[in-house]
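Subject: Sanity check before I submit

Could someone independently write out the structure tokens for this chain? I want to compare against mine line by line before I put it in a report. The sequence has 603 residues.
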Amino acid sequence: MAVSSPDRRRNWLRGHRKQIIGDYLAEARAALAAAAAASLDGEGGEHSAATAALGLVEAVLEMSPRMEAALELRARSLLALRRYRAVADMLRDYIPSCTKPCSADDTSSSSSSSSSCSSASRTDLLSPARDRSDAASAASRFLCCFDISDLKHRVLAGFSKNTSADTQWRYLVLGQACFHLGLMEDAAALLQTGRRLASAAFRRESVCWSEDSFSPSNLTANAISAPASRRASKSGAAGSEAESVSQLLAHVKLLLRRRAAAVAALDADLPAEAVRHFSKVLDARRGVLPHPFATACLVGRAEALRSSGRAADAIADCNRALALDPAFIPALRSRADLLESVGALSDCLRDLEHLKLLYDAALRDGKLPGPTWRPQGGVRFSEIAGAHRALTPRIQQLRGRVAGGEACSVDYYALLGVRRGCTRSELERAHLLLTLKLRPDRCASFAERLELVDEHRDLEAVRDQARMSALSLYRMLQKGYSFIMSVVQDEEAAERQRAKDAAAATAAAAAAAAAAALAREQKETAAVPEKAKISSVSVPSTNVQVQVTQAAAMPTAAMAAAAAMGSPVFQGVFCRDMAVVGTLLSRGGFDRPIPVKCEAMSC
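---
Independent answer below. Compare away.
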């Protein structure tokens, strides 16, 4: 009986499977090496090479699903393609934050929350719905399910002789993926574990070496005499990967230290110091900053800015965080509180309704939005039910206030960060600073410094969202500036009118005082008798001597009044030059005779 061609091909593949797998793995390693070289040189083409390597590895995994070398190459291919979420889903049992057991409040809140902690690695052994007493159910609570992932790893470790050397790639690859996903604590733990395992493996291998084996030539010979798979892994991980892992670990520790300093300053009621540390993280030019970590830092800086009284800057940071991640619950909470504090009730109501939709989705799905390992800024699933109950009456209250006409009563002074009764210069300075910082074309450029790892949101979508939210805030600032400027102009006009009124009142009072003084002087002048008389006047034919004896007894005011009334004192004596007489009288010494020479004087 002749064998058909499909059966013959199947028999041939079954007999040559080991050889085919080896060839596929060798080609996949070569493609990954080419992709790494292309990425270092900057020539391009690394994406196609990594895609080809991933296709070869997928073919190998179809023939041998549990092959460790194929799993390693698949993880490295996904890492080269920047599909960090796929790497995290593939190795999620090794993420420290996902392997922690569920807390008591999570398990008591709902039955679905307990299964969301590690549902892939847990097996239900006994049904918890048996008819038994409460004491028996409490005693057997720990027998309902147990984690078999550790047991599986230990069993597999017993079959292999060098498990740590074979699985250290998991920690290194997953640590890099966790860094790009924003899981900084997990990345630091995984990278440190990978480095420790690599150092321990090198020490175990170097125990049996002689002293001459550590020379460069002998190291090369030992590497050449090793098998092909081990030689490829050593050549790939010894130099460049170890250096890149060390640099990445140092960068992760620096980011964690700066964030810890910012959080400590915020807890110590030092908002300016917290803003400075958060700005160091967000505005750093060196290194890569993943957008999930940047989102959490933006929300933290918004809280610090709110504590320092800079509401507009805080709202701008919340807008940036929501442009990066529209479902980030802490950012929605912070922006809703900020908008309510400045009186923008309509925008606050919109954010609260969006937050309520997220709460409803979380309660329906039994988990927070996104993957289970995705950071949500400290928000736990056990808090969602209580937050949802507290959110509903708040939304109803805001709707009533909006319906009552309070939607337009925005506190623009708090929004711009100026005091009530500010001057024109203070308002213009605050408005200029906010306009330069919060322009819509500049607010969309912050995403260029970040690394976007979400497959569903690209750079253009983030820019559009940031530009729209920045434009809304910019219009609110312009409206607030116009409102406060009109108030300042009214106050300046009122101040000018008050100054004019005060000047007019002062002038009127001065005129009244002058009139009163003049009337008083006239009364005094009328009361003073005319005591100034001419004692003797001698006029010879050639010389005329005039002696004034009683002119000193007459005051000057009386003389002026007498002159004004038309009764001159020296009438009939001087008829030609009265100015000279007035000058002489003003000099003083009226008790002495004044010689006057008049020639051809006629009266």
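---
OP: Matches mine. For the report I'm noting this point. The CA atoms of residues 412 and 484 lie 7 Å apart.
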